[in-house]
Amino acid sequence: MTHRHRRLTTIVLAGLLCLAATPPAEARIHYRIAQYRESGGVVMMTVSFPNLINNKIRRKLRSGFKQTIILRAQVRDATTGQTLARSMWTCTVVYDLWADRYIVTTADATKRHVFKDKTLAAAIGHIVTVRRLPVILQRDMKAWRYYYTSVRVQFNPVSTALLRKVRRWLATPRQQADTATSPASFFGSSLRFFVNAKVSPAEREIRFRSQNFYRTAPTKGQ
User: Residues 131-134: contacts with CB within 8 Å, 24+ apart?
Assistant: First the structure.
């Protein structure tokens, strides 16, 4: 065997050993690239998850009945796994048979949007993308330390009690934000049920995490 062949064999074996050493749990983690930006001391996330939609869900979206999507996000320390902040986003979809359009309503703790789409493709674009979701206060992040966001999305959760809690949660922070002087109101005590809520079955569920992100050290004068 030539020196060149021995070298290639060593590289291949090293690669196989690295794959074999990867824990099974790590191999099953699904990643989505998210965009992060800071505004007013709040870090916001934009991310898409098109794999939520399959043929069965497409048929349901055309049915004319109300469909509900709930997204729950947790920002975690990449080193310790500790959860530092939690947030939520919801989306409801109704196909208006008479007007031949889809009414898509999205909401989080700070804002609510209503879209009226003529095509299913346009409606799905709003269903599978969460934009500028407040996920953590910048002051709660240490400079140069890595964090990531763990996300769970449910299509039509079965529990009506959970849906009632979500509606209350979505209403309270926005009302507080109208008069609050601190972005901390977005992550207030109304999130308590988030941790303790029982796992609710859903017609479809996906989970994923974002890439690691960090904040830089503030410059002098900030």
Answer: 131/46, 132/37, 132/44, 132/45, 132/46, 133/44, 133/45, 133/46, 133/71, 133/73, 133/87, 133/89, 133/108, 134/42, 134/43, 134/44, 134/87, 134/108, 134/109, 134/110, 134/183, 134/186, 134/187
